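Reviewer comment 2.1 asked that we show a complete input and output for one of the modelled complexes. We chose the zinc ion case, as it is the one discussed in the main text.
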Amino acid sequence: MKTPVFYVKLKNMETYNPQEIEPKWQKYWEENGFYKAEDFSLPRRQAGRKPKQYLLLEFPYPSGDGLHVGHCRPYCALDAIARQKRMAGANVLFPIGWDAFGLPTENYAIKHGIHPSIATQKNIANFKRQLKNLGLSFDWSREINTTDPKYYKWTQWIFLKLLEKDLAYQAEIPINWCPACKIGLANEEAVGGACERCGAVVERKVQKQWMLKITAYADRLIDDLEGLDFPERVKSQQINWIGKSFGTEIQFPINNLSISVFTTRADTLFGVTAMVLAPEHPLVEKIVAPENKESVKKYIEDAKRKSDFEREKLEKEKTGVFTGSFCRHPLTDEKIPIWIGDYVISAYGGGAVMMVPAHDQRDFGFSKKYNLPLKIVICPNYPEPVCPILDKAYEGEGHLVSSGKFNGLKSAEAIKKITKELEKKKLGKETIQYKLRDWVFSRQHYWGEPIPVVHCPKCGTVPVSEKDLPVELPYIEKYQPSHTGESPLSAITDWVNVKCPTCGGPAKRETDTMPNWAGSNWYFMRYCDSNNDKALADPKKLKYWLPVDWYNGGMEHTTLHLLYSRFIYKFLFDIKVAPQKEPYQKRTSHGVVLAGDGRKMSKSFGNVVNPDDIVQKYGADTLRVYEMFMGPFDQAISWNEDGVKGVARFLEKAWKISLTCAGNKQSNEDILRAIHKLNKKISEELGQMKFNTIIAGFMEFVNLAQEKPTEVGSDAIERMLILLSPFAPHMAEDLWSRLGHKNSIFQEKWPEYSEEIIKKDTTILVIQINGKTRDTIEVKTGISEKEARELTLSQKKVKTYILDKEIKKVIFVPGKLINIVV
Ligand code: ANZ
Ligand code: ZN
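Response of the prediction step:
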């Protein structure tokens, strides 16, 4: 390692000039490899003994707009932690890369006529420049890019493994379809049921799609959350998304067919007054009565036009239509009318609901609207009689009434007994349902990883052989949607037409591409060994670095991204590629940065704050410290330029006080205690991400030091600079060098604080009269001369010595003695 640039002579009056010092130190740190994470296999003596620390942040999508100050907040936060952990002796992996496939770039490319690969390159270069200007300590040698064929070779490889284990399959399922643009839309392009491009009402269109069987991992994805250091709300989001329900599957016979429903409340079986099928239920066609065909058909047409989002909205009025047919109650054989209602989800629990209006609020509303009867079967205060209903369903538990031989049983027991009875009749059984669906893994877009399979008329769907990976995305001129619902790749005939890997006959490539998630599912594994061309990563390196010790990201990614990547990791664990069953040990989330006007920062509102401007005007350290200071880290907060100015002033004060006091020898106890207190605060609170109170602590210290600069010694200043270095690294490094140090401040050990010094709030002051010790008093540490003098003169004993003699002189040695000369 080279010797840093340092200032031999202390130039007291040098002003703080971030624009001059920041680029210099950025270059120095990078050239000297300060950010490099050492793989265990390198110098074992050095790196091997350090504990490893893998800090991960969600890699950015390199959009055409560049970084805004909201992105910078988590980067500055994790960078501070990375720098502190390195100083505390850890071998830190703090990597960065680009999540670069996906729609925004494709749309940008279409709009501006720039090829997505070129747009991506340009955007990455811009992001990189912006990040480097912030002095973030990423290990750039591990940079990854999901659109690089050397990277997506392994994304495709993972897909082949899933296919091999029957966890990838094709199915006919409905997609969001814009009838005007004639393209399939991702869910995020169809928010609220309107096409994001043209505003047309989105329809559903059934199309063959690739699916991943994430449902096979549902239980493990719930159970393995235990023991992970995730916020409770993140855990419950994962659990709710998977939505595991214990209940009963019940058959309602109709002629020689039967309708299967799922219920969590088998105890309400005797209260069923109707059956409601989802509009897509396969039995609808078979059972609808001739005179009802017309109205049913119309209802289904209407339902088709609604998005799932709209259909499942809780507040929405429930609608339906009668089919004119009836099924039979499985225990009483009563006739039950069959309805169709679009609030019933076709893909859940058999796509049908047994309607119990007295005990389910949705059913209650439905019944009221269509004047259907209502039957009370659960009594909350048994054996008192039930009160006639009602303006609302009673959804709680209770004792059964009007339920034949089950009368008087409590709900929980009734569920068991009724289920048993149904089992005997072969009309029901205990079952578990999940809300989680298999994951639609194809997109009909250009800018994604090609799905590596070939369709052969003779052999069917054939995987591309591993040795032929990657299946490179062809460079094409026309990546606009095809208007047939197929991917634009389907038009590239010389790419599409291939030989079948099995029989050698003519076959066609799959033209669907993978969703954006595909590359971000496993990127953190690639960082462990980003240049490996023989494997996804060296197993030994994976074993050394994984699991990720700390993963910070946005709340918007705590459901899907976390769930998908945990699933893929578990799969890779099962095939012995991933070293353990969970990828992330700890998860934290940052709050978003809103614009000054309180709205989301968005180009369309013209309220985006570009970090380049802040860096240019105030310097990167001011931006970094402001990002940490602006408010509690996990909460949304508005940008405020006055706050930025305040931070700039604070840094300037810290700069001045450092240069003014660095020549002083020792700090007095007051100052010493204050800096140890700050030391303790940071050591304790950094791990809890209480950045804003930490910065407030610095401000307090600097104010204190400014009040009595003569009492501040180089010991306190040096400690302060080390403590400040994770937050304002350029300034801390520069001052460190100005103080005459020959090594980088980042080679310093993170300082220990002394509880003893912190606790010591009082000192013993020796009282002398004319140089002779007469008494001692306990005073608060750091007492001023004026206070000490007043206190001394008020002592009884002192008074007896002094009487009414004239005080000629007072000699005060802070923290030690006071001598009254009379
Ligand atoms: C009868 C009943 C009576 C119900 C009662 C509830 C209360 P979770 O917990 O979400 O699994 N249900 C079943 N399949 C459905 C579908 N495809 N679309 C919409 N709703 C459906 O909820 C299970 C309950 O949701 C089931 O229990 C069923 O209504 C409804 F007093 O059955 B219940
Ligand atoms: Zn073939």
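The chain has a mean pLDDT of 91. We note this here for comparison with the apo prediction described in Section 3.2.
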